[in-house]
Amino acid sequence: MLHISIIKDEESALDHFSLSSCQKTKDDLYICPICPLPRFGRRESSSKGLSQVCLIKHLRDHFDSPKSLIVKGYKITACFQPCIQNYDAKKWHYHCPFCPDSYTTKVLIKNHILVCQGYVGSTHKSAENLVMNTSTPVGSQRISLFGSRGLNSSFGGQFTAVSRSKNSSQNESLLGFSPLPLTPASSSVVKTVENFTPEKLEFEALEKEDAKAVIQGYLKTADSSTYENVFKSFSTMEDKAGILLWIKELTNCAANLDRKADKLILAFLKLPLFSCDELGKATSSFIQTLVGYHNYFSYHVLKTLFNHLLPALNEDNDDLLISAGSLSADEESTYNSVLSAILLINSDIPLTQNNLLLLASKSMPYLNQHVHIHAVYARNLLRLAESLPHLRVAVLEVIISNMITIDVHAPRLELLEEECEDDVDSNDEEDMFNMEVDDTGREQTENTPLDSCQVPRAMTHKVGNTLDVLMCIMFQYIHDVCHGIKELSLPVHLKSVPEAQNTKLCHPGSESISKFSVKRPDGGCECGGTQQSVSTLKALYNDMKLIFSNTILRTHASAHVQFLLFYLISMRPGLLPFFLDFLINNKFRDPQVAPCIRKNAMAYVGSLLARGKFVTFLEMHTCLKSICDWCDDYLDNQEKIPERYYEDLSLHWPFYHACQTLFYIFTFRYLEYTANKKALAMARSLNLERFVHSRLNPLNICSPPIVKNFVAVAHHFQIAYCHTVMERNKRLGIPAARTDAYVEVKPAVLESLFPFDPYLLQRSKLYIQNHYREFEGLPEDIADDMMEDTCVSVGTPISPEYNDTAFGVSPGFMRFSEDNNL
């Protein structure tokens, strides 16, 4: 005989009880047979009892409450009677329909049914089929409190009690009847299990009514415990049928899921729902329906989806340091499903694009996290950028901004200390010009085909290795977009040598530009531009130029991220004049632009013209001529204002930066200017001697290594005679012996920072090494011509009265004396 808290699924509570069998109070009101008297008095507004109509409603609420559960064939509600030991009126328990056992939670009673039927150790599905196919209740009799069924008319009978508390006799005397109608102890059905822990056993699937009951119960009570155990069982993703039922129920009641249900929804979406295509499509449909009803959830759902774009990681796997960013087919499918859900939200609610960009930036992994996390997230954002063309600039800016943050935390000095220990003691001049030239090493790196590259290795510098991988991914992205490849391919450092050899398109690190060729192909890659998509390349250039202006150009001491523009222009050298015009005319010459940006713009011009192999001699000379014309105009204007025509870095800093760029480029590419008489005449036409001998004295302000090499080259080829100016500057730096104290004044010197200095990242160097020009050093005859007394003395103290004294009678010093007398 079934317990009073158990009824058949097909019958209602009214069919299960008889009003004549319910205990009545003195006021002729009914008392619930399931609730004990103390709890019954607290649950209702009246502690005296219920009317007939209220009792019927009260009994229905018992079996329809979230505390009830359904096993196919039976509906079990929570029992509040003192049937167990350590009875507490505030807690409830459940009775098994097949044996006298009882348990305190829904999970335990479900697990017990599997054990009770002897299916411990069986597969969950077989146990589920047994429970779901059970249609005949155990025992030939059951309690019915409604006499129309012709069954017992009282609570008395032959029942077997499993356990009773000390308060059961007291409660029985208060109610006037026995509140424990239990199942008879049938030996053919009841099975005892010793030393069994049922917490680890769970059902494989939930019924539709269970999901609906949990959802409705949470909406009423806001108790997270109603779904935590269910979601915990779903985390293993073994019960896909149960998860699909939950998704279906959540979709059906999406209109009723207001802000009170946010914890339930977010907890459910944190499950790995996109690991299966079927679940991913159902989840995307639910998300689309949910945000359509309630825009409030769009931000929180997007935040959860972006967290799904971060991979689960086993940091003990050292292979991920080398193959960072590589994904299996299942992982690719999972991330594509997540991205599809993000695109659905953006298409249905266009106003979410601000939240989308904000969350894309907030979800970015921290710079010290594993390189694989950075690589996978960056590739996912690149896929998102290609799927949202109107947001591509913003998404790329999020990626590049993160790379800049990583770049500034991986300074050149640290990379050199960990990767190139032999070059730690190199001075600033060697770092800038790489004066010690290794012809053998250059022959090995120059025109290196991709199939001869060594096996890539991870850098020992953690942050540097992360930046190296991200640069590889971005280089490959630029190459693919320039060639019209819609599906992003793996970077070169993730491909094996045979795969790279079988690549149909040109190799990303290949070169087709001769060293001094004036005529060149349209493209700086092996295909010569024939396989490039000009429209997509121009669109990408415009996007990257905007990002460069907003982020890269504003960053001080960035070492590697700017090479993205370097590589993009090398892919299509025809873009170079447009980029130089942007830097010179739109940035440097515009007085309304911030000084730091104007300085950086001129530094980019000088470094790009000096380092790019794709920059022809005519293009370089045209750009230098433009800068010289500006310097000539500047000097002409200053000569009209004598009171300002003197050496002062804070006053004439644009002129000094332009001169330093001229000296740097001319020194770097002097071989082309001295190759023949025509080229030498072009060098003299720049009129560099005027700048050297001007009263602004750029040789004393510009960086000493640049000045030293420029003076040597200019003197050897008779481009400009600089020794008199150098001698004057040297004498101004001689300290004087004084009896009184004086303040030491260090001469102001420009910083010699050029953006495209030697590239130090190991694997991503493959993309730019064949487009990059190394400094070939000065020949011995030029170096021998440099006298020791022409070297610049930097950092010596200067007496305040030294500027008022002229030394010697040479025209240079006389001019200096005249300047001081102004």
Automatic annotation (TrEMBL):
One of its GO terms (biological process) is transcription initiation at RNA polymerase I promoter. One of its GO terms (cellular component) is nucleus. This is RNA polymerase I-specific transcription initiation factor RRN3. GO terms for molecular function: RNA polymerase I core binding; RNA polymerase I general transcription initiation factor activity. It comes from the Eukaryota. Coiled coil: none annotated. InterPro entries: RNA_pol_I_trans_ini_fac_RRN3. Belongs to the RRN3 family.
